[in-house]
Amino acid sequence: MSRTEPAVTFEAAAVRLGGRTIWRDVSLRVAGGEFVAILGPNGAGKSTLIKAILGLLPLSAGTATVLGRPPGEAKGRIGYLPQRRTFDAGTRIRGVDLVRLGLDGSRLGVPLPGLPGRARTAARVAEVLELVDAAGYAREPLGELSGGEQQRLLIAQALVRRPQLLLLDEPLDSLDLPNQAAVAALVRRICREEKVAVLLVAHDINPILSYLDRVVYLAGGAAVEGRPEDVISGETLSRLYGAPIEVLRASDGRLVVVGQPEAPFVHGDRHAHA
Amino acid sequence: MLAHEFMRNALVAGTFVGLACGLVGYFVVLRAQVFAGDALSHVAFTGALAAAVLGVDILAGLFVATVLGGLLIGVLGDRARADDVVIGSLFAWTLGLGVLFLSLFTTRSSAGNGTAGVRVLFGSIFGLSGSDVRTSVALAVLASGLLLAIARPLLFASLDTAVASAQGVPVRALELGFLALVGLVAAEASQAVGALLLLGLLAAPAGAAHRLTASPYVGLVLSALLAVGSVWLGLSLSYLVPTLPPSSMIIASAVGCFTLALAATAPRGRAAGARRRS
Amino acid sequence: MPTPEAAVFQGLSWNPLHDLHELFSYPFMVNALEAGTIVAVMAGVTGWFMVLRRQTFAGHTLSIIAFPGAAAAGLAGLPVALGYFSFCGLGALALAGVAGSQRSHSGESAAIGSLQALALALGFLFVSLYHGILIGLDSLLFGTFLGITRGQVAALLGVAAAAVTLIAVVARPLLFASLDADVARAGGVPVRLLGFGFLLVLGLSVAETSQITGALLVFALLVTPAATAHQLTSRPGLGIALSVAIALVVTWLGLALAFFSIYPVGFYVTSLAFALYVLVRLARAL
Questions:
Q1: Which of B6, B20, B35, C60 could disulfide-link to B140, CB 3.0 to 4.6 Å?
Q2: Domains in chain B: how many in total?
Q3: Whose CA is closest to A27, among A61, A77, A73?
Q4: pLDDT string in tens for chain B (278-residue length)
Q5: Given this model, what pLDDT does residue B260 score?
Q6: A-chain residues within 8 Å CB-CB of C103?
Q7: What pLDDT, in 10s, does the model give residues A75-105?
Q8: Is pLDDT of C8 > 60?
Q9: B137 to chain A, minimum CA–CA distance in Å?
Q10: Looking at beta carbons, which residues of chain B come within 8 Å of A82?
Q11: Is B196 an interface residue toward C (CB < 8 Å)?
Q12: C102 touches chain A (CB under 8 A)
């Protein structure tokens, strides 16, 4: 795939869940190799957007293409990290096995020693573990690793098939600040070195602000897309929310968005998932 | 020991049943569905005795009951947890129904058949005929083959449902298919160790394997080996001391393995707990 | 071979008074009814808390442990009740230990499943060693109303009275600890001690109930009436009373039906309890 062909395009797309339209008239364009953040308050439909890209949720209006195909048809070329995935303390499976499943988990049968593909698989797994700096603890049981370590292994799993598009749903939210910074830097490095388009959902822009190419901001059932400095401004956000929003810059350079109303909580939403 | 046909039959059938139980049991423990084994043991008991009362072949009755039972548990989905009162009551009632069939069967048939209940509950591995053995082996090979074929996607779907589903793995179909497979293996194991004890052959060798290794495919093989080993040990003990029933000795061997595995890995567990908290 | 109970069958005369009179004319039946009443009261009270605390699987496992206890006692020539109580008490301790130690849910369930299977395997071993022929296996597993002695009734009464009194004394803190452990602990309630004590009482309850329903069918008296009561009301006092009432009705009716027919008491008790539960749930859903 060439650098000029877009990774994801949405034209006037909308999604309905449980009788409610989550967002409508969303148009966006993510180019190959771009690092894009998807921002917005809780309940705005950020995870919904990811699932629509994966083809797990159908569009109720508009069109979308993902890596040149309709959503859901490019499964092998997309790496996916779902939201809030931590493994319970007793999980005995190892990181290296988890990563390997990302590569061959959907194939039937069991991997037998001596089969030709095995060496290639092992080499690729080792390579991607090196890439995320997780080789040191990849053979420990997952349940015994810290949150940051687990997250790196999960990113490795998402990368193992050499995807052209990486979808990360709130990968930073359960991490402490140093780990957030480290994982953000890692994602940026992968984006540049491996030429992967990255869509990262976050509810706090600050850990990734300096690495971003573009931002998609979802709120109030609509979306705005553009460069970070254009989108994260009081004027743009006020228009998006339909309410007065201020964007303040703290003394250490962090951006703080003030005045955003929470998305209305409708009980049925929580259960309306694919 | 091997000169006796009943012993040879028991060893052959037991080996293959152990193989199937070890393989399927690994996933039962991984997926925390041990309670399903408990529920299926009640279904096996009732199904076998219903078949006896109706005059139908007992293995057929077992098989139909446990596979349907497995599918039922799968359909109930999230509800099928150990502490769920509804499911527990349903399967407890199934056992009560089985008791009815037991008494119907024993009052209806001649005095010599009074032990049918015991055979169903605790197995009759020393009483297998040549054709019984062939059926057992065939079914066990089928079950093991199916399990090995779906092992990888099942592992993926069990550990990492969201990503597996995003990659196109048919998670729901695998869930149901797996439980039907557990039903099949439960029916087989009922013949060997009885409906009441099959839970042990599913849980103990697999539990030991999970403690001993974190590598999934090694664990799978280990679970099968431990199950087969327990069968051999149990049968040998029972042969040497005939008053010891074979099914009890097989289960005792399996649980013994598990206990040893727990004891051997306990220090590591404590150290790991300390590391996670840091 | 017909069940021992079948030998007693005299036939229903369709005159309730006459039938009842006949029922009461057999001392063993009177014993059975008395034992059943005591067990039902204890099961109703303990079961209500057990369902509240979501410990039904623990209860089920404990009842399985009753089986080798009774069989071992028979083998050693000791009174069966001793076997029941000691094994269930030890089992409660073991469960309290297991619950704390296992780090993973799957490891814990593998351990409990193995414990269950081992208990059944050992029980079968003891019964085989004792009898050679397997008489008595049925009644140990599925219950019987024959052969309950005055001594047994007295033992049941003593243990039940102690257990129910104990629960009555700690009822409020136990309720608090069951519903909201963290807040209770902060308020000074000894949550762990209560939890442990409750498991012990549960063990005794299970041991008692097993003597009527057999080790495998304890669920029917201990869980199902309590679950039905929980469906009907969430008020503790009323709930416990209902739980006891349902358990009593199910036991009396089950025993009477088993007396007048050839089918085993275990079947009647589980079916009655389950049927009532299903009815109540359906009624609530409509």
A1: B20
A2: 1
A3: A61
A4: 677 888 899 999 999 999 999 999 999 999 888 888 888 988 999 999 899 888 888 888 889 999 999 998 888 776 656 667 888 888 888 888 888 888 888 777 654 456 777 888 888 888 888 888 898 899 999 999 999 999 999 999 988 888 888 888 899 999 999 999 999 999 988 888 888 899 999 999 999 999 999 888 999 999 999 999 999 999 999 999 988 999 999 999 999 999 999 888 877 655 555 554 43
A5: 93
A6: 89-90, 143
A7: 778 888 888 666 766 667 888 888 988 888 8
A8: no
A9: 21
A10: 162-163, 166
A11: yes
A12: yes
Asked if B167 has any chain C CB less than 8 Å from its own CB, the reply is no
Q: What is the CATH number of the domain that holds B124?
A: 1.10.3470.10
Q: Two tokens at C25? A: 């004319």
B201 and chain C in contact, CB less than 8 A: yes
- If we measure between CA atoms, which residue out of B262, B145, B146, B148 comes closest to residue B216? B148
Which ipTM was obtained for this model? 0.90
Neighbours of chain C (3+ CB pairs under 8 A): A, B
CA distance C260 to C242: 27
| Domain assignment of residue B71, given as a range | 5-277
Answer yes or no: do B197 and C121 touch at CB < 8 A: yes
pLDDT given at position C263: 80
With tokens 């005792």, the residue in question is: B252
Selection from A42, A100, A98 nearest residue A220 by Cα? A42
Domain boundaries, chain C: 13-280
Task: Look at residue C205 in the predicted model and tell me its pLDDT.
Answer: 86
Q: What is the pLDDT of residue A273?
A: 40
CATH of A6-85+162-271 among 3.60.40.10, 3.40.50.300, 3.40.50.12780, 3.30.470.20: 3.40.50.300
CB pairs under 8 A between B and C: 182
Which CATH code for domain C13-280? 1.10.3470.10
Contact B152 A141 (CB under 8 A): no
Q: Measured in whole angstroms, how far is the alpha carbon of residue C47 from the centre of its chain?
A: 9
| Mean pLDDT value across residues C176-186 | 83
Residue numbers in A near C107 (CB within 8 A): 90
CA distance A87 to chain C (A): 10
Give the β-pairing of A214-219 and A35-39.
Answer: parallel
Could you tell me if A51 and A274 are in contact, meaning their C-beta atoms sit under 8 angstroms apart? yes
* Residue B187 CB partners (closer than 8 Å, separation 6+): B44, B47, B59, B62, B63, B65, B66, B67, B139
pLDDT in tens, A41-51: 888 889 899 98
Q: What is the pTM of this model?
A: 0.83
**A contact chains, 3+ CB pairs < 8 A:** B, C
Chain A residue numbers with beta carbons less than 8 Å from the beta carbon of B160 are 85, 98, 101, 105, 157
Cβ separation B151–A56 shorter than 8 A: no
CA of C153 vs chain B CAs: smallest distance (Å): 25
Interval C72-121: pLDDT, tens: 888 888 888 888 889 988 888 888 877 655 556 667 788 888 988 999 99
A157 touches A102 (CB < 8 A): yes
Would you call C107 an interface residue with chain A, using a CB distance cutoff of 8 Å? yes
- Indicate whether A272 pLDDT > 50: no
- Find which of B26, B126, B196, B250 to mutate to test the C interface (most C CBs within 10 Å of its CB): B196
Separation in Å, CA of B132 to nearest CA in chain C: 23
Candidates C98, C102, C103, C106: best to mutate against A (most CBs of A within 10 A) is C103
Q: pLDDT, tens digit, for every residue of A107-129?
A: 777 777 777 778 888 899 999 99
Mean pLDDT, rounded, of chain C: 83
Is B255 touching C (CB cutoff 8 A)?
yes
Instruction: Find the closest chain C residue to A144 by CA distance.
Output: C103
